[in-house]
Each structure stands twice: as C-alpha cells, then as structure tokens.
Amino acid sequence: MTGTGFWRVFSAGVALAGIVVAARPAAAQTGGDCADVTTQTQAVICYGQLMQEAETAMNRKLVMVKSLRRFLEDTELDNGLDAAQLAFVEYRKRTCDSVFAYRAGASNQYPESLACQLLLDRQRTAALENLYRASAGP
C-alpha cells in the first residue's frame, strides 16, 4: 500500500472510530467519573474539578515532552509542538461547544460539555505519553 493509500485508510478508520465513540454521551466515556452525583450542580462541580486535574496533567506532560533533548535542541520541532497544542485546544473548544449546543435544554447540557473536555484532555495526555516517550527518541 502506498503512503498516501495508507493514510486514507488510516484516516477513514480513525473517523469511523470517532463516530462509534461519539455515539455515546461524553459522561459515559469517562469511566464512571461522577457516577454518584445526584444533581446537575453536583455533576458540574465534579466534572469541573476532574477537568482541572486532567488539564493540569496534560500541561505537565507537555512540559515533560518539551524538556526532552530533541525539543531543547530543535526550535522548529519545539514550535511545531506548540502549534499542535494550540490546535488541540481549539479543537477541544469547538468540539465541546458543539456538545453543549447539541444538548441545549437538556438537564445534562453542562455536565456533558465538561465531560467532553475531560475526555479530550485525557486522550491528549495519553497521546503525548505514547507519541513522545523519552525512550523512543534517538
């Protein structure tokens, strides 16, 4: 399979996986977080706290990745990661704003939007960990 063909198949698979995952509410994809809350206010507080923790963990992982020798020695590589992170933050905002709009009027509108942010931050942290392992570099 040519490089271009591979990326088309890969992209289609990723898109399909995204559709399958997106079919479930964001809160259902966060591993039972905040499952014991009984009110929307409790859910917003719970997801808000978890979201802050996830964002902090993601930022810590980003700092760790940027401290790898290759990033310290290569400004272009470092700038590329900065641009990728900014693109991720914009993607997260647009995606979760869309979830918020989709859930308009529903009792779980705010919790689902926060759960969306939590889910995406956790996924980004895992991606940073997997893609930039210190042991995988030259």
Percent helix range = over 70%
Structural class: mainly alpha
Shape: elongated
Strand content: under 5%
Oligomer, anyone? single chain
Low-confidence stretches: 3-24
End-to-end distance, in Å? 27 Å
Rounded Rg: 17 Å
- The whole-number mean of residue pLDDT values reads 81
Our count of helices gives: 5
Largest sheet: none
- The count of strands amounts to 0
Task: Describe the overall structure.
The chain has five helices and no strands. The protein is elongated. By secondary structure, the protein is mainly α.
How is the topology of this model organized?
Layout: H1 3-22, H2 40-66, H3 69-73, H4 75-102, H5 109-131
Q: Which features does this protein show?
A:
single chain, 138 residues, mainly alpha, 0% strand, elongated, disordered N terminus
Could you give a quick summary of the protein structure above?
Helices cover 75% and strands 0% of the residues.
